[in-house]
UniProtKB/TrEMBL annotation:
GO terms for biological process: lipid biosynthetic process; methylation. Keywords: Lipid metabolism, Methyltransferase, S-adenosyl-L-methionine, Transferase. This is DUF7884 domain-containing protein. SUPFAM superfamilies: S-adenosyl-L-methionine-dependent methyltransferases. The active site is at 360. Pfam families: CMAS (PF02353), DUF7884 (PF25371).
Length: 394
């Protein structure tokens, strides 16, 4: 066990940008760095050195879930401390991604993967999401905007970018709990179709459509977007918010081809998604416990596929700091409702989701993740406004 301490000392000394204290399983304490420690780490039991060296993301993630590692201090700030150290393992994801097995993402597997994450229960999500039940990046127009206001802002911002007109047909691929399609019908008079693979989201969205008496304008289907293509659906506008991350690396090309097939000539589409600077598989801990089948596309992959399909990119915008703040709000809400969460989820699940929300927030703040909105047209569209002024008009 003394050899284990030697290993952890070397590993921890090279991990953080701040001074940390460590308390080992036998009560021994040590400090790595100069000055007063900002954080304290508890190593409560044996963690395989081989597993850490093979895949630190998975090994440390599982160790935290099972309380073999614990922290004293703000967990997001602790992870940010690792990100701010450019020599830490968090900046070597491409090395470990080579060991990850890529499983083809067919329709059957996509349904299973999506339902694994999104069908955890509306009672769970409603505890820490805002009133709109929007589970994607908000748009904070003002520093003091609440999470609810940021989600309202985001939907309005997207709908402005789409330049909707009454009577147009709008498709939302991965519609979540339906807030965007309902707002689009109410504000712009479009005929909106939302699709999802989540049974819970499908049921909730249908209920909201009925509550708002929008049966004639809004529809939701429990189908994969690939099934719509087979039925020759056609739309004036197509939007997708936080869905392409579930498509899988091998299906990015066919996804863009399918959007092209369903979008009318001159039609406008908006793709809102998490992005990476370079290509690489999502770390194994996230894929195993949070988003099975997930893949974060690089910016150049997406732009290249647009060009290949005669989809003309007319605007692109990073919302990285908006997602940092959104995730920070979610993590805080999660902790504030912890007693309620404990009534429906066990401790391992709680620690897993605490790590997920805080690690993602840290990643958008100081790490390797970004999020973009891509606006593009099928073929040339000369009716597009020549400035962005329309986006900021009431």
């Amino acid at each position: 066990m003394e050899l284990d301490k030697v290993f952890f000392k070397k590993f921890l000394q090279s991990a953080f940008s701040d001074t940390v204290e460590v308390k080992y399983w036998d009560g021994m304490e040590d400090k790595y760095g100069d000055g007063k420690a900002k954080f304290k780490i508890y190593i409560n039991g044996h963690i395989s050195k081989k597993n850490i060296l093979t895949d630190p993301f998975l090994a440390i993630g599982e160790a935290y879930m099972n309380n073999l590692i614990d922290f004293e201090g703000n967990i997001r700030e602790i992870i940010e401390s690792v990100y701010r150290n450019k020599d830490s393992f968090l900046h070597k994801a491409e090395i470990f991604s080579k060991i990850y097995k890529v499983i083809p993402n067919n329709i059957k597997r996509s349904k299973k993967d999506v339902q694994y994450h999104y069908d955890l229960g509306d009672d769970f999500y409603s505890l820490w999401l805002d009133e709109t039940m929007t589970y994607s990046c908000g748009y904070f127009m003002k520093e003091e905007d609440s999470l609810y206001q940021a989600q309202v802002n985001k939907v309005n911002y997207i709908l402005k970018k789409l330049q909707l007109k009454p009577g147009q047909k709008l498709l939302d691929i991965g519609c979540g709990w339906g807030n965007l399609i309902i707002t689009a019908a109410q504000k712009y008079g479009v005929n909106a179709l939302g699709i999802t693979l989540s049974k819970k989201q499908f049921e909730k969205t249908n209920k909201k459509i009925l509550e708002n008496n929008l049966q004639e304008k809004v529809q939701v289907k429990l189908v994969d977007y690939r099934e719509l293509v087979k039925e020759k659906y056609s739309f004036d506008r197509i939007v997708s918010v936080g869905m392409i991350e579930h498509v899988g690396r091998q299906n990015l090309s066919s996804y863009m081809e399918d959007v092209k097939a369903m979008l009318k000539e001159g039609g406008i589409s908006l793709l809102h998604c998490i992005t990476a600077q370079t290509e690489g598989e999502v770390n194994q801990w996230i894929k195993k416990y949070i988003f099975p089948g997930g893949y974060i596309p690089s910016i150049r992959q997406l732009v290249s596929l647009m060009a290949d399909n005669n989809l003309h990119l007319i605007d692109v915008e990073s919302l990285r700091l908006h997602y940092f703040k959104t995730l920070k709000c979610w993590a805080e809400n999660f902790e504030n409702k912890l007693e309620e969460v404990k009534k429906i989820k066990d401790d391992v699940f709680i620690r897993m989701w605490r790590l997920y929300l805080n690690a993602c927030s840290a990643s958008f703040h100081y790490g390797v993740m970004d999020i973009h909105q891509f606006l593009f047209t099928k073929g040339l569209n000369n009716d597009i406004p020549m400035t962005r002024d329309y986006l900021y008009e009431d």
